[in-house]
Design brief:
Helix content is 12%, strand content 32%. The protein is mainly beta. It has a single domain (30-129), classed as Immunoglobulin-like, CATH 2.60.40. It has a four-stranded antiparallel β-sheet with strand order 1-7-4-5. A three-stranded antiparallel β-sheet has the order 2-3-6, with no helix packed on it.
C-alpha cells in the first residue's frame, strides 16, 4: 500500500479577509519609538499619544487618549477643576489602544494637560514614571 502526500493548492489571489486586514493595517500606522531599557521603559516621540476632549450632556469632561506607539505607554493627565485644583488620573494604555476618563468637576474652560512615558509592561509603570524628573509636578494647561 502506497501513501500519497497531497499538498493543498494555494491561490495566488489574496482572499477578501486578507485584503481587509492589509487595508486596515495601512489606515493607522503605529509610531516607532526608541529601544527600551532593562526595565522596559523608553522615551516615546510626541505623536505616540493623541488626546481628544468632549463635553458630556451632564457637563462633565471626557478625555479620550489613544496610544499610537508599538508598545505600551503610561499616561498621567490632569484637568483644571472648578475650584482651581487639579483633577488627575493615570493609566497604562497598550499599543494601539484607547482609554477614556470622565472628569466630574472641570472648570468652564475644559483645560487639560498630560504627560506620558513608554512602558512595555503595566507592572513597571511606576518604575518608568520615576525616570521622568517632573512626573508629579504641576502641569501647564492647554
Amino acid at each position: 500500500m502506497r501513501i500519497r502526500k497531497t499538498v493543498p493548492r494555494i491561490s495566488r489571489r489574496p482572499t477578501p479577509i486578507f485584503s481587509f486586514i492589509a487595508a486596515l493595517s495601512l489606515m493607522a500606522p503605529l509610531t516607532v519609538a526608541k529601544a527600551a531599557d532593562e526595565d522596559g521603559c523608553y522615551f516615546p516621540p510626541n505623536d505616540c499619544l493623541s488626546v481628544s476632549s468632549d463635553w458630556t450632556s451632564s457637563g462633565n469632561l471626557k478625555l479620550t487618549m489613544r496610544n499610537n506607539c508599538q508598545a505600551g505607554i503610561y499616561v498621567r493627565w490632569c484637568v483644571l477643576e472648578s475650584d482651581g485644583s487639579d483633577g488627575c488620573g493615570a493609566s497604562h494604555i497598550g499599543r494601539g489602544r484607547s482609554y477614556s476618563s470622565v472628569m466630574y468637576n472641570p472648570d468652564d474652560s475644559g483645560r487639560h494637560a498630560w504627560r506620558f512615558v513608554g512602558s512595555e509592561q503595566a507592572s513597571k509603570d511606576w518604575v518608568c514614571s520615576g525616570k521622568i524628573s517632573n512626573w508629579n509636578e504641576d502641569m501647564s494647561y492647554y
